[in-house]
Write a structure and sequence with these properties.
The complex is a heterodimer. Chain A is mainly α. Chain A has helices at residues 2-27, 33-38, 44-54, 60-72, 86-121, 126-139, 143-157, 173-207, 210-217, 222-259, 265-275, 278-306. Chain B has one domain (2-27, 54-267): Orthogonal Bundle (MetI-like fold). In chain B, 75% of the residues lie in helices and 0% in strands. Chain B has helices at 2-26, 59-95, 97-111, 115-126, 130-157, 160-167, 172-208, 220-228, 236-267. The longest helix of chain B has 37 residues, at 59-95. The two termini of chain B are 22 Å apart. The model of chain B is unreliable at 265-271 (pLDDT under 50). The chains are: A mainly alpha, B mainly alpha.
């Protein structure tokens, strides 16, 4: 319990620091938000009036405090460019990205667990080496390239799946799933390849343990011993990596959303960068960093649930 | 046996990347940015072994110049990460106490800040460009170097020769420079190879998003982005930059793996 409180405090400090860093990064921008919004032909009067309206004429710390307090209430402010409230837009887009990340994680696990366990079990055989080589090749392919190749094979050649776009789940579940298959595959294939290597080395090291030999000596078959005693122990190191992978998926989704024209958080962020919509950039980046921090916290806690030996530390 | 194979294949691919990048400084078959409206999307022939793109530019020349951008990106990012991370790790590992704590907490915080996100943020502030992108990737990779070199420093500091150096009256700086740094170099080199691969992937992704290398400078990520619209008509355009990126990353990863196996006995517990 003490540990969870301490970790949550660390998370809060981290989130505070991250939001401050993001705010500072964008605050040093040449020219203020009003100038950017009005363009190069704006009169100084108009800029001053709009600055007052945006609140960007106040001291930086006051601006930060206002913005951060708003965040705590879920108020992300109003976009300087579209003049719409940012919170609902971020929430909307976050939902789309979460589906993508969840699908990507599922694909990654479905690939990594069997591939990792098999390549460990077969590590002295050619087929084990082949699996290992395949995973090495998979890691080298960037997610967006995997996306392009998948589009070519399944959309261009086979015509079986859409090359891009997104349909909300509430609108048409069938089309929603069809539109998510290729994006999730391109995110998950690469992460799965990376994850399978960790699964492999975790299973390999477990296989050398004394309790595995004892289990075999007691007459358990190789696979039975592995499933009963090996895999639960191998799960601990894999879980840590899983947390890191989830963060990588969140960021990877930014690129994959661009490939498949999916209206997620990444798409929103890239549009905000193109429009120089500072408050929107600030909001999206903070949400993504806090999401990464939360994933790290959950991994830490889960790690201790799975491995009782770590609880006392 | 396996480690030697990784080293050989990885080394060969990395060498190919470096040689292509260096060669492109003095020679490419054509001017990589030369637009030739009469030769749009021409199939491969003797003059253009990989054909031309939608602007009639020679694909092979662009690929070669792209290799240069890739190497440049990796060198800048790894250079920054190395120069920032290794001193942080060594100082932290040698001094211990509150300084160690502070350095490690800062690196924890930086680790939670995804590299690509930092790069997008910097691109929003300072505008797009290979250098801006790689500074961001370098900053984000520095904590990795700090952690690895701290762990290695702790191992070195336990050695008797460090006690001997202390008793001989050597200053802390002298111990760091003469004894610690040379002895952690192997671990740092392995980390550099892995980070180089990360930087290559990041540069490709950022250029693909339009936040990295600015056109008309050819970069593999940019080439992939430009080929996406033509996926239905000329899919082979996306093949070459894709293959080049994957081969470069594969080579760097294999090289890193091979080197790590060489260093392994002393590396246990570090990673």
């Amino acid at each position: 319990m003490y540990l969870i409180v301490r970790k949550t405090l660390t998370l809060l400090v981290g989130a505070f620091a991250a939001s401050f860093v993001v705010f500072c990064c964008l605050a040093v921008l040449p020219g203020n938000a009003a100038e950017v919004a009005l363009g190069t032909n704006a009169t100084p009067d108009a800029v001053a009036r709009l600055s007052e309206e945006f609140g960007t004429d106040r001291p930086l710390l006051t601006q930060y405090a206002d913005w951060a307090l708003g965040l705590l209430h879920g108020d992300f402010g109003t976009s300087y460019v579209t003049h719409e409230p940012i919170g609902p837009r971020v929430a909307d887009r976050f939902g789309v990205t979460l589906w993508l990340v969840a699908g990507g994680m599922l694909v990654a696990l479905l690939i990594a667990l069997p591939a990792g366990v098999l390549s460990a079990a077969w590590h002295r055989k050619p087929r084990g080496t082949l699996l290992s080589a395949l995973s090495q090749a998979g890691i080298a392919v960037p997610a967006f390239l995997a996306g392009l190749l998948l589009v070519y094979v399944f959309a261009v050649r086979a015509g079986a799946l859409p090359a891009g776009g997104y349909v909300p789940l509430a609108e048409d579940p069938g089309e929603w799933a069809r539109h998510l298959v290729l994006p999730c595959l391109s995110l998950g294939l690469v992460q799965g390849a990376a994850l399978s290597r960790y699964v492999r080395s975790a299973v390999l090291s477990v296989q050398r343990q004394d309790y595995m030999r004892t289990a075999r000596a007691k007459g358990a078959r190789r696979w039975a011993a592995l499933c009963r005693h090996g895999l639960p122990n191998a799960a601990v190191p894999v879980l840590t990596v899983l947390g890191l992978q989830l963060s990588a998926l969140l960021v990877g989704a930014i690129v994959v959303e661009r490939v498949f024209v999916i209206p997620g958080l990444g798409d929103l962020l890239l549009r905000a960068v193109a429009d120089r919509d500072l408050l929107l950039i600030q909001g999206v980046v903070t949400v993504l960093v806090v999401a990464v921090l939360v994933v790290n916290l959950l991994t830490d806690v889960l790690y201790r649930v799975v491995d009782p030996r770590l609880r006392s530390r | 046996m396996k480690s030697r194979m990784s080293l050989t294949i990885g080394g060969a691919l990395v060498l190919l990347l470096l040689v292509t990048a260096l060669l492109s400084l003095v020679w490419t078959p054509h001017d990589a940015s030369h637009i030739d409206a009469s030769r749009q999307l021409a199939p491969p022939d003797a003059g253009h072994p990989l054909g031309t793109d939608q602007f009639g530019r020679d694909v092979l020349s662009r690929l070669m110049e792209g290799a240069r951008i890739t190497v440049f990106a990796g060198v800048v990012a790894v250079g920054i990460a190395l120069l920032a991370g290794v001193p942080m790790g060594v100082v932290s590992g040698m001094s211990g106490g509150w300084l160690d704590n502070v350095v490690m907490r800062v690196s924890d915080f930086l680790l939670a800040f995804p590299a690509l996100l930092l790069a997008i943020l910097l691109a929003a502030v300072y505008g797009t460009g290979t250098l801006t992108a790689m500074v961001a990737i370098g900053i984000a990779s520095a904590p990795g170097f700090a952690r690895v070199s701290r762990a290695a420093t702790l191992r070195v500091m336990a050695g008797e020769y460090i006690d001997a150096a202390r008793l001989a009256g050597r200053s802390r700086t002298a111990i760091a420079v003469r004894h610690v740094v040379p002895n952690i170099l192997d671990v740092v080199i392995v980390q550099a190879s892995v980070s180089f691969a990360t930087a290559v992937l990041a540069e490709a992704a950022l250029s693909y998003l339009g936040l990295g290398t600015v056109p008309p400078t050819p970069s593999w990520g940019r080439m992939l982005q430009e080929s996406q619209d033509l996926l239905f008509s000329t899919p082979e355009l996306c093949l070459w930059p894709g293959l080049a990126t994957a081969a470069a990353v594969l080579g760097l990863n294999l090289l890193g793996d091979g080197l790590r196996d060489r260093v392994d006995p002393t590396l246990e517990g570090v990673r």
